[in-house]
């Protein structure tokens, strides 16, 4: 409903109204935060005031009638994190809202279109459904697999028939499960979500979902159906089986259970609730095996015929078991669920041996396939998934380790053909090996379904360099493959856990590519839930305990500080800081205790961990950066972020404390790890003995590594003068290494920014464009469509190398090295946030001399669209930028001198009201408000 206000004179327009980062969501936050994005044709436009109306009915959404909240005119420029301050919100309450803004001249704009949110079930007493389930474990036989055994009980199916006396005006399904659920009404799946209700520490919180199912119900008899699978709750997790952990499955419980209630309002205003209870019947269905890591086996012959029909007689079904699931803390899922976000067609099929066909999907991704098949009852089609092929064309499954990753479909023999998609598993793959297919399959028989948390795409990046474009594509695909309810390390092998080191290093890139505000709201909670009693954050979250020695590690545990900080930086989210503050303080107290109050970690401080020292600069090449030096750097970095976050939430005393701590750590660091004369980073390598027990310890340790300098520069451990000298050492190290990088997980992100910051942009570009091992380009030259775990995961024309790499750890979809995108966005396109949420930002592109002539980047920030694109043309540099309403940017235009810069074809001094800054080091600064601006200058 668009409401044009007769008084509106400003063209300021609020759009994209969201509540708790989601559009028209179901929420359970009692003080939800609202946001909108403003557009205007007027340059340098900003909001000086806003007014929000919230009403319980759409008809009441007018001044004077808004019965829940009328904010009145509130002075201020906020367009996000605006907290609802109206009447207390009740369970099931629907809220309609709209907003208008006043512009810089205090002129009133139009009302926005209306949006809504709806409250979930806020009280425990709102839940009157029972937990139902069925334990099939006594009928389940173990299955031999790779010298071990798998235990995969069949999935129960549930049914209940109800009668709706009247036509329905509103119906909601509130649903959760221990394990994974699928719920259907009259044979039609409710919602589009996969792997719901996601993975959490189920003993601390369990999420439920709400679906509007009004359109799925009619007057009369209805069939309610559900099925369950073990999922993360009772299924296999990670490498527990591989390493011989005493527990390999059932980390949270043994039997899945369902709790759901369908609440119906009839057109006459009466209501009914249809809850899971003892009236529900249960049976086994077609799903004989089902597990996230191991895949599914579905026998279509075993699906009870017509069970979705009201004529079905369920007298032979058993009564559902009522499960005592304890008093769980139920909360509404706070993010975009996992959904199918794209479909993919195979690009080729080859018959690898008789009856064995390999489908190449052309892209490595996470998800499933939909199988289309026609054949006899009992025909059995087996689908195996892999990311790579052996040189002889066989599917490579060695790198999946103990993940069986196999789906099997047994046909019922429908003469019209059959279609099947698994429900409760997913795989990371590019290739599908198909056996048992009746006849010869064609490309029509397999469709790839891309699954992932449905985070909106907000970033775009393009250049005129094909390899760089492919790299960006690979980064985005790897993010899509690993943002599956939690940020996983990889989607294919028996791991898929929320490794904290990977997530902290990639968080900045993630937020440029996708709107991960809600996604990380969820995972940061998982992280807090997994914090150890003694204060350290874990190696991965959730942390069910797949190996007793997986405790904490430097630079992994700091995710508990870095991820909330990145959330604040990207979205201005202070609530997440407030909520997590106590937990973060506890972590800092752990550091204090662990470092014995010494403000640094000498060599050997983490020798009690396994591996010793933690994971360090994981998967680096050559000599290892001392883990304790990195631990000190991350301690200091955490202290610095704590100071900034304390300031953001008004804790000035804590801000001072952490500021002081951060300084002390930096001093202690240079006293111990810096040779102040030469500005060389040093370590007592002898303290590590023969390196036994440390990751790659046999290679020896040195302070003089790329990763050490990159971190010390990037994370501010040196003063300005020292930084420049250290930048020189870093540049020299790269030269000495034949112009190649040597960094692992803790240096790959920092390396290029550290070079740029110390005047070596040319070397940063050289590293980006390098195609020899180790480099990003090497992966692409070798056919990568996603980011690899290791720099040398695969070598195209070297079958032997491939064979030797089929080792225990070789994922082709690992996002950590994709964090180089931060530099691409910040330095190539030049867009860098200053104040949180891009309230103010910088556009300072670094133009390389050669190889790249065009870069274009865009980011839909919480304030609106930011873009920077430049090209070289006829000796000129053309730069176009856009700056959203309500923000300010300082643009640095490379030029000969200030007279060399044209803005919209006029010299800067011919413009009125343009805030010109200094000309410094070949760049002219201009401070601009919102709008799109075109600059032209001479290429140097
Ligand atoms: C994971 C990593 C993780 C690491 C710890 C690996 O198995 O795949 O990405 O961070 O363990 O070093």
Can you lay out the helices and strands and say which pair or pack?
Elements: E1 13-19, E2 26-27, E3 33-39, E4 49-55, E5 69-70, E6 74-75, E7 82-83, E8 94-102, E9 115-119, E10 132-133, E11 143-145, E12 148-150, E13 156-164, E14 168-178, E15 180-185, E16 188-189, E17 193-194, E18 206-212, E19 220-229, H1 231-234, H2 240-243, E20 257-266, E21 271-275, E22 281-284, E23 287-291, E24 295-299, E25 318-319, E26 321-322, E27 330-332, E28 338-344, E29 348-353, E30 356-373, E31 380-386, E32 388-389, E33 395-396, E34 406-410, E35 418-420, E36 427-435, E37 446-453, E38 459-463, H3 466-482, E39 483-484, E40 486-487, H4 500-513, H5 517-529, H6 559-571, H7 575-594, H8 627-648, H9 652-673, E41 674-675, E42 680-681, H10 706-714, H11 720-736, H12 748-757, H13 761-769, H14 776-781, H15 799-805, H16 821-828, E43 831-833, E44 840-843, E45 854-861, E46 864-873, E47 876-883, E48 888-894, E49 902-903, E50 906-907, E51 915-920, E52 923-928, E53 931-938
Helix pairs in contact: 4-6, 5-6, 6-7, 6-8, 7-8, 8-9, 10-11, 10-12, 12-13, 12-16
Q: Distance N terminus to C terminus? A: 53 Å
Rounded to an integer, what's the Rg over CA atoms? 29 Å
Give the overall shape. globular
Number of strands: 53
The average pLDDT score comes to 96
CATH architectural grouping of the largest domain: Alpha/alpha barrel
> Which compounds are bound in this model?
beta-D-glucopyranose
CATH class of the largest domain: Mainly Alpha
Low-confidence stretches: 1-6
Structural class: alpha+beta
């Amino acid at each position: 409903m668009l409401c044009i206000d007769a008084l509106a004179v400003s063209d300021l327009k609020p759009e994209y109204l969201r509540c708790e980062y989601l559009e028209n969501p179901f929420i359970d936050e009692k003080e939800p935060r609202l946001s909108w994005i403003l557009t205007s044709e007027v340059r340098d436009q900003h909001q000086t005031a806003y007014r929000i109306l919230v009403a319980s009915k759409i008809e009441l959404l007018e001044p004077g009638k808004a019965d829940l909240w009328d904010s009145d005119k509130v002075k201020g420029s906020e367009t996000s994190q605006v907290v609802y301050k109206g009447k207390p919100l009740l369970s099931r309450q629907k809220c309609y809202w709209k907003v208008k803004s006043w512009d810089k001249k205090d002129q009133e704009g139009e009302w926005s279109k209306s949006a809504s949110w709806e409250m979930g079930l806020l009280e425990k007493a709102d839940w009157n459904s029972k937990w139902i389930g069925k334990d099939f474990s006594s009928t389940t036989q173990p299955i031999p697999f790779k010298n071990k055994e798998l235990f995969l009980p069949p999935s129960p199916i549930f049914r209940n028939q109800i009668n709706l006396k009247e036509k329905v005006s509103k119906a909601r399904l509130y649903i959760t499960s221990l394990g994974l659920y699928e719920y259907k009404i009259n044979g039609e799946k409710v919602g589009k979500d996969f792997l719901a209700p996601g993975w959490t520490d189920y003993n601390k919180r369990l999420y439920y979902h709400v679906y509007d199912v009004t359109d799925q119900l009619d007057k009369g008899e209805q069939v309610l159906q559900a099925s369950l699978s073990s999922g993360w709750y009772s299924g296999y997790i990670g490498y527990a089986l591989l390493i011989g952990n005493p527990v390999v499955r059932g980390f949270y419980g043994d039997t899945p259970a369902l709790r759901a209630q369908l609440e119906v309002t009839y057109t006459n205003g009466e209501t009914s609730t249809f809850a899971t209870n003892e009236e529900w019947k249960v049976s086994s269905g077609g799903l004989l095996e089902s597990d996230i890591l191991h895949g599914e086996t579905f026998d279509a012959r075993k699906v009870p015929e017509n069970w979705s029909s009201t004529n079905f007689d369920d007298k032979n079904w058993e009564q559902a078991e009522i499960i005592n699931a304890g008093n769980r803390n139920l909360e509404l899922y706070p993010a975009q669920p996992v959904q199918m976000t794209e479909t993919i067609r195979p690009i080729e099929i080859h018959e690898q041996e008789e009856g064995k066909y390999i489908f190449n999907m052309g892209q490595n991704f996470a998800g499933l396939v939909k199988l289309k098949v026609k054949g006899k009852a009992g025909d059995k089609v087996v689908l195996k998934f892999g990311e790579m092929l052996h040189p002889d064309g066989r599917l490579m499954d060695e790198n999946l380790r103990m993940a069986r990753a196999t789906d099997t479909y047994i046909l019922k023999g429908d003469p019209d053909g059959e279609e099947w998609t698994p429900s409760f598993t997913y795989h990371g793959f590019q290739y599908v090996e198909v056996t048992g297919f009746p006849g010869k399959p064609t490309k029509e028989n397999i469709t790839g379904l891309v699954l992932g948390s449905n985070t909106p795409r907000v970033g775009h990046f393009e250049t005129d360099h094909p390899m760089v474009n492919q790299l960006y594509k690979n980064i985005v695909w790897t993010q899509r493959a690993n943002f599956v309810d939690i940020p996983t390390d990889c989607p294919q092998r028996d791991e898929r856990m929320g490794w904290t080191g990977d997530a902290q290093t990639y968080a900045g890139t993630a937020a440029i590519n996708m709107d991960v505000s809600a996604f990380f709201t969820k995972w940061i909670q998982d992280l807090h839930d997994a914090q150890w009693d003694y204060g350290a954050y874990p190696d991965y979250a959730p942390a069910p305990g797949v190996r007793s020695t997986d405790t904490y590690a430097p630079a992994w545990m700091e995710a508990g500080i870095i991820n909330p900080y990145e959330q604040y930086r990207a979205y201005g989210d202070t609530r997440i800081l407030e909520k997590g503050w106590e937990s973060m303080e506890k972590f800092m107290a752990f550091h204090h205790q662990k470092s014995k109050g010494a403000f640094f970690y000498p060599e050997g401080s983490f020798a009690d961990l396994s591996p010793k020292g933690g994971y360090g600069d994981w998967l680096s090449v050559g000599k290892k950066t001392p883990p304790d030096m990195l631990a000190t750097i991350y301690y200091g970095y955490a202290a610095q972020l704590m100071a900034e976050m304390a300031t953001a939430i008004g804790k000035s005393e804590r801000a001072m404390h952490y500021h002081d701590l951060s300084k002390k750590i930096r001093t202690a660091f240079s006293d111990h790890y810096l040779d102040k004369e030469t500005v060389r980073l040093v370590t007592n390598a002898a303290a590590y003995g023969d390196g036994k027990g440390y990751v790659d310890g046999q290679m020896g340790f040195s302070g003089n590594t790329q990763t050490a300098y990159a971190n010390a520069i990037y994370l501010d451990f040196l003063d300005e003068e020292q930084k420049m000298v250290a930048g020189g050492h870093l540049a020299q190290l790269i030269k000495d290494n034949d112009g190649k990088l040597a960094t692992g997980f803790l240096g790959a992100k920092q390396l290029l920014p550290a070079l740029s910051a110390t005047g070596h942009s040319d070397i940063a570009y050289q590293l980006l464009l390098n195609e020899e091992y180790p480099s990003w380009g090497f992966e692409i030259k070798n056919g990568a469509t996603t980011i690899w775990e290791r720099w040398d995961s695969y070598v195209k024309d070297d079958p032997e190398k491939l064979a030797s790499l089929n080792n225990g750890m070789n994922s082709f979809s690992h996002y950590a090295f994709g964090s180089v995108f931060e530099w691409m966005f910040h330095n190539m396109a030049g867009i860098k946030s200053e104040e949180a949420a891009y309230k103010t930002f910088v556009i300072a592109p670094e133009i390389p001399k050669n190889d790249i002539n065009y870069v274009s980047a865009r980011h839909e920030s919480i304030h609106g669209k930011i873009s920077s694109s430049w090209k070289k043309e006829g000796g000129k540099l053309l730069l176009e930028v856009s700056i959203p309403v309500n923000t300010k940017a300082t643009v640095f235009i490379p030029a000969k001198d200030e007279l060399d810069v044209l803005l919209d074809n006029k010299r800067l001094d011919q413009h009125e009201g343009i805030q010109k800054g200094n000309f410094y080091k070949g760049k002219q600064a201009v401070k601009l408000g919102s709008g799109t601006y075109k600059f032209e200058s001479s290429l140097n």
